[in-house]
Amino acid sequence: MPPRDSEAGELGSLPGVGPKTAAKLAAHGLHTLADLARVVPTGYRDRRHRTPLSQAADGAEAAVVATIRKFSQRFFRGRFFAGLDCVVEEGGREIGLQCQWFHRVGGLAERAQAGKRVLLVGRVSRKKGKLALIHPEIRDPEAPGPAISVRYPEVEGVGEATLAKLCRAAIERLGSSLVDPLPPELCARLGLMPLAPALALLHAPDEALPAEAIAALQAGRSPAHRRMLFEELLVAQLALQRRRAAAQALPVTVTLLPDEGARREQLRACVPFEPTPAQWAAIDEIEADLARPRPMLRLLQGDVGSGKTLVAFAASAGIVAAGGQAVWMAPTEILAQQHTATLRPWCLAAGIRLALLTGSMTRGERTAVIQAAAAGTVDLVVGTHALLTEDVQLRRLGLVVVDEQHRFGVRQRATLRDKGRAPHLLVLTATPIPRTLALSLVGELDVSTLREAPPGRRPPDTTLMAGPVARARFRLAEHVRRDMLQGFVVCPQIEAGAREASDVDEAAAELRTLLPGKRIEVVHGRVDPARRAAAMAEFRAGAIDVLVATTVIEVGVDVPEARFMLIEHAEHFGLSQLHQLRGRIGRGTATSWCLLHTGAEAGSAAARRLQVLADTHDGFVVAERDLAERGPGELFGLRQAGRVAWAGLAGEGVALLEAARTAASELLARDPALHGHAELRARVERHARPEAGDAG
């Protein structure tokens, strides 16, 4: 059912929104007035009280009146920087204060004139005894604006002030027509705020609110945040559970043949090592699914290097032996090529006909693979998004394997499965998922877990280094020169930008100076795929000493000889992502090491967060910490503009997940089509459409 006109009216009906602005909003998942109404602010600033600067804690929000001494702005190495020197009179003495901006702010120079007395509102930074405000607002002390200001997420091409006006205008326009999709009895049972009061608290907090209520809003743990997060989780759960029911409605085409233990011996004959007990357990779970008349829907999760490829091969071999075909989809050509290289000798030993299909193949190569797949003369096809095109058909598709599942949308997975009649589905992830999150976030999938690594793997020694990045590069260069090592340097960005962080070009230039005679190459997402593939091939062959890259190397790079990694400004990455990057080394038996650099001070919150990686190599421990701090959106790419943040509700988030899963099951048991919950059904159907986000 489409949303009602009152909610789905064109955003162009709002003052100041033309086609271009509407398109920019739509690119961030904001299509309707109801979407704008549900945008969750990113922060709040309380200007009701002037904070004594001497009492402001590091990282806290402060509002101070200061006199400007000097303002400057410049570009350095392609990066924008603006600085403001000012003085604050406090307790009969003058305190020096700096303000810093790392991206351009409209009208900043006009507001920051020397000699002016201004109200500054921003986050306090205390470094080496110096005080600074980071990206503060500059206001007139006599006309400071709203006592409690609301901050909004970044939407490219739409200013924060404009987005704030549009959100408030959408709420006003909808008025009483904005119906709460949550059943009142459910809200009462779980102690959830109704929708209208929750939106009012988020977008227009009452100036009479006590300081602790503002602090809860600022931290993302207010009753309004709790209510909005639950609604988001319930909609996702309903979509997941309805999807599972639909996926298992048809009988499968291919089921496993009776075994009597023969498959284990056949697998042992095809691979050059004995599977671990954890791999055998996962294979048993999967084969039990493959023998049933309904399609398997299973997630295989395992830490980096735990052997998921072998388990997926065993499932594929069983399906091929039963007369079916298998298809594997990987998110990058590098990973697809890596899988093909690994599988080729195993497939040869098993008599399985293997083919690779990627976007960079010639037309003739592509046509030959497509014809063989349609004719059934190829048994296992490994590919990238190229598998999703309409001309790719398989004669008897029995198994779909999707690797790095969080990089594909639900719609893409469904497109691939639609190339067969109810084939089995096995999705793989090397991002370990805490059990409670797995049950709730990927609720349409059964879960198998690999927790032990194959024998012979030595995890890298990991060290954290705070301070200037030049020191980390010098230390790296010493190791490379002394031990003749090969490895990676990872940077947060391709080129100098708004973030105060290193980029690949700058890092490569300095490393070439520090390591004369060493071959240093750069790879990132903008490099031509053919050139990137060539660089990776040379790196595997040992012709490149240091590969400077972005996160493009996060998956699909298996070079046992790579023995070091420097990750610069690691505070810009999630813990699980850092763990994935670190997994590119330590893939052989020799000692390897990972140096995590942070521009933050030793002992800072950022440094303490990163210390987790130095303390443990268990990806599940890392994932639990990431879940607590950053939420599932960071783990699985679920975050869209304006969605409620998880971090403030970290202690309660998993409980809300479980409550949403239970509530979804109860609702669907009573009303499978949600006919009695029109608003909720509309939200679920929006969630299932491509423009609503395909995460999952």
UniProtKB/TrEMBL annotation:
Xref: InterPro entries: DEAD/DEAH_box_helicase_dom, Helicase_ATP-bd, Helicase_C-like, NA-bd_OB-fold, P-loop_NTPase, RecG/Mfd, RecG_wedge
CDD domains in UniProt: RecG_wedge_OBF
Segments forming domain Helicase C-terminal: 483-628
Pfam families to which the protein is assigned, alphabetical: DEAD, Helicase_C, RecG_wedge
Residues in Helicase ATP-binding domain copies: 289-450
Stored SMART domains: DEXDc, HELICc
Entry's Gene Ontology molecular function annotations: ATP binding; DNA binding; DNA helicase activity; hydrolase activity
SUPFAM superfamilies documented for this protein: Nucleic acid-binding proteins, P-loop containing nucleoside triphosphate hydrolases
The protein's name in its UniProt record: ATP-dependent DNA helicase RecG
Species of provenance: Nannocystis pusilla
Lineage per the UniProt record: Bacteria, Pseudomonadati, Myxococcota, Polyangia, Nannocystales
